[in-house]
Amino acid sequence: MLLQKQMIGDHYDRLAEGGHKVVYTFVPGNLNELVRSFGLLPVLPEINALQSGMRKLSAEYIAEAEKQGHSEDVCTYVKCDIGMLKKGNIGPTGKPLPKPDLLLLSYTGCFTFMKWFELLRSEFGDVPVAMLHVPYQANGRIEPHQRQYVVDQLRNEVIPKLEQVSGRPFDVQKLRDMLALSAQAEDDLVWVLESAKNRPSPIDAYFGGVYYIGPIFSAFRGTPEAVDYYRTLRAEVEARLAAGAGPITPDGPMTREKVRLVVEGPPNWTSFREFWRMFSEEDAVVVASTYTKVGGLYDRGFRHDPAHPLETLADYCLGCYTNLNLPTRVELIERYIRDYRADGFLINSVKSCNSFSVGQLLMLRQIEERTGVPGAFIESDLVDPRYFSAANIKNRIESYLQMLDQKRGAAA
Ligand code: SF4
To answer: Among residues 242, 231, 249, which one has the least CA distance to residue 185?
Structure first.
């Protein structure tokens, strides 16, 4: 946790120092290796929003955006970002963010991405835009023509824009080298996430998982820093596993694992630790989550492949969680419940995040039917503190965990 905080803080410092051209782009479908192979630095608006949420800055930014006419139903990441911009584009660490030299829109299933960049384009004026249209995985698999369609856009639209903005020619060897580093870090990340199959789990794969995905889902995929980070993380988790230790919680190590859960949906950031405590105080550990797959679904076997640099970037984008259809998502959660031997699963539904929340009640019913495991449904928000009702959520979680306990007691 400390190391990733340091890395992310250092990245904001580098951005504030100036002297680098920057590309604004989104987490799902980010082309970090490609962007950095041109010597450009990424700025990820969702990371700005969630970091602002964790630092209690988002309420003011959202109020500012609503004052400008953005409706209550709009994704609160967007409003947080727009509010931040209106107040001077000072990043979450208190340092100024540079203006974009390019808006690189990888469209991976969330329509909001498109509207968000339309707003940024009108705010920043004359900024070049590159759009990568990633087709939805409607059939639950990547078709060869879809891969080719994305590769063609990379070749004909995205790379020429990156060349133009950076003033450098495309260097495929540099990209291959970075992709090889990505695959190393991805191997270690998957090992860490899968360590939760053990009993007790040495990690929390949702609340703790947020710190595990930080570097690889933000600015560091494809860098030696990411490789070092995941090697260090793996060594730490290996030691916990060897000692039979449980995960770290906001109040120290968990000494008794009582309940194992799978969680679907993004977390709430404005009351992140309070939310985490609602689970950890009940000795409930999250053993798998879908949110920790939002910037890349590596546990299904995908790795960035330096031998096929553009095809692998296409597959990465096509395989993003936000780009998967509902049957695939249901199947994924079902698999997590079985493989991680979970006692229950919980959906944290964020109404303003359409790409996660659409269909979640249907998913709940289908997963219950397929696994026989009862699910729970709560509602909160990403970065709008008005929609985190602590007493209600705590009440629901406690009742659900009691129900699971009684169910297990009856079965014993
Ligand atoms: S709606 Fe959800 S997936 Fe889309 S930008 Fe907002 S938080 Fe991200």
So the answer is: 231
Question: What's the pLDDT band for 351 if we cut at 50, 70, 90?
Answer: confident
The DSSP code for 137 is B
Torsion of Cα atoms, 230 then 232 then 234 then 238, to 10° = 180
Helices (H), 319-389: 326-339, 354-357, 360-371
Nearest Cα residue to atom 2 of ligand 1: 353
Judge if pTM exceeds 0.70.
yes
Q: How far from 6 is each of 13, 22, 49, 349, CA to CA, in Å?
A: 10, 20, 18, 30
Ligand 1 within 6 A of CB of 357 = no
Pocket lining: 322 vs ligand 1, CB cutoff 6 Å: yes
For residue 412, pLDDT beyond 80: no
CB atoms within 10 A of CB 217: 23
Radius of gyration of the chain (CA): 21
Distance between Cα 382 and ligand 1 center (Å): 9
What is the C-alpha separation between 18 and 98, in angstroms, rounded?
7
The CA-to-CA distance between both ends of the chain, in Å, stands at 38
Q: Whose CA is nearest to atom 7 of ligand 1?
A: 353
CB 370 within 8 A of CB 345: no
